[in-house]
Amino acid sequence: MLEPHYNTVIIGAGPAGLIAGVEAFNPNHSIVILEKMHKTGLKLRISGKGRCNITNEESMQSFLNRFGKKGRFLKYAFSQFFNHDLLKYINDLGVPTKLERGGRYFCESDRATDIVVAFEKKLSDLNIPIAMKTHVTGIQKIDGGQYVLQVKQGEHQTQVLADQVCICSGGLGYPATGSTGDGYTMAKAFDHTIVDTAPSLVPVLTAGDTAKRVMGVSLRNISLSIWDEGKKVAEMFGEMMFTRKGVTGPIILTLSETLVAMLESTKEVQIKIDLKPALDHKKLDQRLLRELSNNSKQNFRSLLKSLLPLKMIDLFVDLLEIDPAKKLHQVTGEERKRLRMLLKEFPMQVIGHDSYDRAIVTSGGVSLKEIDPTTMESKLTSNLYFAGEVIDVNGETGGYNLTSSWSTGFLAGRSMRNNDFGR
């Protein structure tokens, strides 16, 4: 049962809420974490395909760059609690970690659940309860500066009084885990601005059956560019994968925010895949000439085998309209040029994106202009804090967004620990 009054109420038991709860511990404060779902950290449990990409080893400046202009807001939080602080923190909770390709850190066990369980144990040791299946349906501030929360537990409705509140309820990505935008409604109750939200780090959909034909093919060390009416908008080097309806993978997810925004304002959005980014057009042409000359009696299909994943060969044959049995010494200059162009600028038209159901994070949220970056406290009303995905900060894939949640949650918790509520 909930008590009628707490000094500190944290809404949401995701990464930001869990660490905020631990850091808010003060022997003179009563604290509770309210979680509307049946388990804590549901989204955290499935992060990194269930392995939890905790953070990344990059430098702080490189990290901040992964958030674009919004990175400036995180600078103070990262100065207080950054990647190696986080790793030590999690190790001290009894969860070993390991470094993998791309500077990404994971649980050594490959079980994201281990982190959630470790936080639950720590909170239990501190006698900080987590009230499950407890949904905050409303919040208001009363005379005297305290907050009244309308709370629903099953069919039971009640009120909870709080001296300070931290909203860590997430964004809109993966709503089945509880991220349904509740925090935005709560923030609006205190006149906070909500920057327009959209799915981010989300797979995109492409026209035709090209993706379906090569579904499951992963491409590494390729370059992908985005085009708007013949103009290149963005470009990135890395990995991607074809799905039944489109494309996904690290570079697609990172560029998805740009693609989603373009789809809202542009009729035609195109991506081009450079399958041979290490070779410019001239060097690739020279390579093709050598292949044609040195293997003149082989057929065209054999040339494609040396250039492409096997599952893409039939697709290239159809797109190029070149007989796969044609001998290489019979390939014309015009056909060679068509092959070179397709290898360097493989085009796909983007027609949409997956929904919030598949979005790793949410773009948009509570305006950064209205949050103090040194405390995570609202600038509009005292003793109200925000942390995690509910705020308007989202970065690239690779452990950056989770680090933002840990760091802002840590800072909010520390700020609440030291709060005397104006007394």
* CATH class membership of the largest domain: Alpha Beta
Can you count the helices? 14
| Rounded average pLDDT | 95
Percent of residues in helices: 25-40%
Total domain modules? 2
Any chance you could write out the topology, listing elements then pairs?
Blueprint lengths: L4 E7 L3 H9 L7 E4 L7 H5 L6 E4 L3 H6 L5 H10 L2 H10 L4 E4 L3 E4 L5 H13 L4 E2 L2 E8 L5 E7 L2 E12 L14 H7 L5 E7 L3 E3 L3 H4 L4 E11 L2 E12 L3 E3 L1 H16 L3 E6 L6 H14 L5 H6 L7 H8 L12 H12 L1 E8 L7 E6 L17 E3 L13 H18 L6
Parallel strand pairs: 1-2, 1-9, 2-6, 9-18
Antiparallel strand pairs: 3-5, 4-5, 7-8, 8-9, 10-17, 11-14, 11-16, 12-13, 12-15, 13-14, 15-16
Helix pairs in contact: 1-6, 1-14, 4-14, 10-13
Task: Describe the model.
The protein has helices spanning 15-23, 42-46, 60-65, 71-80, 83-92, 113-125, 182-188, 210-213, 250-265, 281-294, 300-305, 313-320, 333-344, 400-417, and strands spanning 5-11, 31-34, 53-56, 97-100, 104-107, 130-131, 134-141, 147-153, 156-167, 194-200, 204-206, 218-228, 231-242, 246-248, 269-274, 346-353, 361-366, 384-386. The longest helix has 18 residues, at 400-417. It has 423 residues and is α+β, with helices and mostly antiparallel strands. Strands 1, 2, 6, 7, 8, 9 and 18 form a seven-stranded mixed β-sheet that branches. Strands 11-14-13-12-15-16 form a six-stranded antiparallel β-barrel. Strands 3-5-4 form a three-stranded antiparallel β-sheet. The chain folds into two domains: 5-198 and 363-417, FAD/NAD(P)-binding domain (3-Layer(bba) Sandwich); 203-354, no CATH class. The two termini are 28 Å apart. The protein is 33% helix and 26% strand. The model has no long low-confidence stretch (mean pLDDT 95). The protein contains 14 helices and 18 strands.
